[in-house]
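Look over both lines:
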Amino acid sequence: MAKKGGNVVTAVRAIAEPLAESLGYFIWDVEYVREGAQWYLRITIDSEEGINIEDCEKMHRAIDPLLDEADPIEDAYTLEVSSPGIERDLKNDMQIEACEGWDVEVKLYAPLDGSKLYRGVLLGLTENGDIALNMGGAEDAKIFPRASVAKISTVFDFDA
């Protein structure tokens, strides 16, 4: 039974999560997006040991026939299975919690104390779901209201 819009992501995630777990991975993200005339189903996997091209190929080969059988998508699409990479956007609580202790950039919708961009070590989520960031020392921790955050991305210093 084919589905539309956000239902596609939900349906695909329900198929992908148990499969990924059986292969030793977890689902980082599922996206169903249109770019130009083409639709893309992007399944991003991760594991404690990281992901390589063979892992992506293994997941792709395993999920492709399951998607064909379940038929959760009406339109023709391209299936992509990938790793989230070392620099990744953090879109939900699970991703934020998984990256606690990592260097991140927080981009705000509007300036706070004169800036819309902050970089530091991700401390995680506060009790009420706001973003806590260490800006260089314990006394430099900063809390960003979740509603003010446009984007959180991990950053990696390739020169270090």
User: Anything to note?
Assistant: The mean pLDDT is 91. The chain has two domains: 6-82, 93-154. The radius of gyration is 18 Å. Residues 75 and 120 are 42 Å apart (CA to CA).
